[in-house]
Amino acid sequence: RQVEYIDAVLEHGSQAKAAKALDVNIRTVERGIASAKKKYALANVTAQSEYGEDLPAPFRLRGVSTLYNGKGEITSQWVKSEIDKDQLSEMLTEFVGQLTEEIRGAYEPPPVLQDYRGKKAKDLLTVYPMGDPHLGMYAWRGDAEENHDLDKAVADIDAAIDRLVAQAPDSRTCIIANLGDFFHADNNSAMTSRSGNILDVDTRWNHVMQVGAHLMVSIINRCLEKHEKVIVRNAIGNHDDHSSMALSLILNAFFEGTNRVHVETSPQQAWFYKHGKTLIGIHHGHSIKKDKLMGVMAVDAAQHWSETIHRYWLLGHVHHSEVREEPGVLIEYFRTLAPRDEYAQSHGYRSERDMRAIVYHKEYGEIERFTMNIRRIRDKDASIGVI
User: Fold this and answer.
1) The pLDDT of residue 175
2) What pLDDT, on the 0 to 100 scale, is given for residue 1?
3) How, if at all, do strands 354-361 and 173-178 pair?
C-alpha cells in the first residue's frame, strides 16, 4: 500500500493529488510515506552516515568519532547512532493505525440480553484475570510438563472464559484483565528483549499475533453476551513489551464504533480502576517489587486511594498463586493456564494451573470468585452451572 502511495505521488506530482486519485484522505498518504521512510532508515543502517547529524527516524545521535593524523589534522569523521526506543514505539503505533484504518467502526456489538437497570447489576463488577497466557509457547512432554502449542493454548483459554462467563453474575460491567505475557515472544527472534533468553516457540510470531487478536475479539464477544460494558486492559509483560501494546491498539480500532467496549491503551505499566469504594490495580508484576506496590498505588492513584476502602493489586509474572496483605491493600499474583516449558521444568518451578472470575461489590469489595482449573476446563462433562 505504501508503494502505491509513493507511485501515485511520483505520477501526480503531490501528496494532495495522489490522495485524490486514490480516493483516500491526504493524511493517510502522508502517514504511509513517512512510515516508509522510517522503514528505509531501519533497513539501511550503513546509509546513515550521509545524513550527518540530521539522522532519520527512529535513530538518534550517540556521538561523533574523529580521526586525527600526526599533525593534528582531521583525516576522517563519522557519526555514531542508535535506535531511539521512544521513536520506535511511535512507529509501532503509526503502523498499527495504518493496518486498522479500514476496520474502524465496522464492528456491531450483540444485543444486550440481560436487564442491567437494577441496582444489583450496577453494584457488581466482574473481573476476569488472565495470568500469563504465553500464546505461541511450544512444549514437548519429553522435557516439559506436557505437549503444548498455539492451538492447545487457544482451546484452553476459550473453554475457561466460556465457563467462567457462564458462572459469573449479571454484573453490568466487567474487566478482562490480561496480566501480561499474553504472547510468549515479542518478535521473530524468539528471544526475550531484556535478557536475550532463547524461547521455545510454536509457529511464526506474525501468525501468533493474528491468532491472539482473534482470540481476544472472541473473549470480548463472549463477555458482551453477559455484561453490558466490557473494559479490556492488556498489561505490558516482559515477554511482550511491544506486542501487548500492538494488541491494545488493534482491539481499540476494531471496537471503535461501540460504546460497550473500552480498550485501555495507556502505555503506563500500572493501571487503576475505581468501582465505588473498591480500587483495583493491574500490573504484570515484573518491574515493581512487592514491597513497593502499596506505595505505588497510594501515590499514582492518590485520589482514588482516598475515596476507597477495599484495594487490590492483580498481578501475573510468577505463574503461581500468592497473596500478600499490606496496610490498606491486598496483593495477589495469579496462576497461568499454560503448562511448564523446558525452562520452568528444569528449574524446578511447580504450580497448579487455573483461571478465575472475581466479583467485586462497590461497597463491600470482593464478595465471591469462581475458579476453573485446567482439568475441569478440559472435562467436557464437568458441570458449569452456578452452584
Assistant:
1) 98
2) 81
3) unpaired
